[in-house]
Amino acid sequence: MAQPPTLSALRSLVAARFPTASRKQLGCVPTGIAGLDEALGGGLPAGRLTELVSEAASSGGQLVLTRLLVATRAARQRVALVDGADGFAPEAVPADALRHLVWVRAHNLDEALAAADVLVRDGNYAAVVIDLRGIAERVLRRTPSPAWHRMHRAAENQPAAVLVQTPFALVPAVPWRLTLRATQGLAQRRRSQAELAAELRVETVRGHVATEEKAG
């Protein structure tokens, strides 16, 4: 059966844009947020799914993505973003940090997961971010478990660290689940990204420890 045109086009785009990318040894990808990286033992683990739950718009999910793009750009690493609800705000990211980003704007959850599967298996990216925030809760809760099992398997032995951003705990069998709690400082007057990142409140729900800490 022929592949959907959208996935075929995505494969062609990746192959044309990054024809000589090589695989890197598995390790971790620092997010650029010290407290978050410390909780993860150095950064997002390659070859694994990490779930980041943002329970409120002011909890810092966009900030985490922005800092990750800045950090990976400094390391000359490529990142793919699967935007499930067209919520990414590129104007909030320094222009130079977007140079190594492939941004896929999905039309629905199925398309987002299918695109993520292609990108994770591709092997050209240090990190693949699957942002499911903004998708209706009833739709997310209907996601069949085999879809996540397939994503876990796709990530194994691949160089990409997979970050799944969700509005509530969703991904089964994920080795790391971190929750961002709403922080008053993020809603205050304009401050530097470094200052805002230091104010993020991170709770490790699943991982080596289950304690709440202040990132930074």
User: Regions with pLDDT < 50 over 5+ consecutive residues?
Assistant: 18-25, 208-216
Which class do the helix and strand fractions yield?
alpha/beta
CATH topology: Rossmann fold
**H-E order:** HEHEEHEEHEHHEEHEE
Shape: globular
Main sheet properties: 8 strands, mixed
Overview of the structural elements:
The chain has 216 residues and is of the alpha/beta class. It has a single domain, classed as P-loop containing nucleotide triphosphate hydrolases (Rossmann fold, 3-Layer(aba) Sandwich), CATH 3.40.50. Helix content is 32%, strand content 21%. It has an 8-stranded mixed β-sheet, sandwiched between helices. Strands 1-2 form a two-stranded antiparallel sheet.
Helix-strand blueprint:
Blueprint: H1 5-17, E1 28-29, H2 34-39, E2 44-45, E3 49-54, H3 61-74, E4 79-83, E5 101-105, H4 109-122, E6 127-131, H5 137-141, H6 145-155, E7 161-166, E8 176-181, H7 193-198, E9 201-206, E10 212-214
Parallel strand pairs: 3-7, 3-8, 4-5, 4-6, 6-7
Antiparallel strand pairs: 1-2, 8-9, 9-10
Helix pairs in contact: 1-4, 4-6
Give a short synopsis of this structure.
With 216 residues, this protein is an alpha/beta fold. The chain contains seven helices and ten strands.
Overview features:
single chain; 216 residues; alpha/beta; Rossmann fold; 8-stranded mixed β-sheet; 7 helices; disordered C terminus
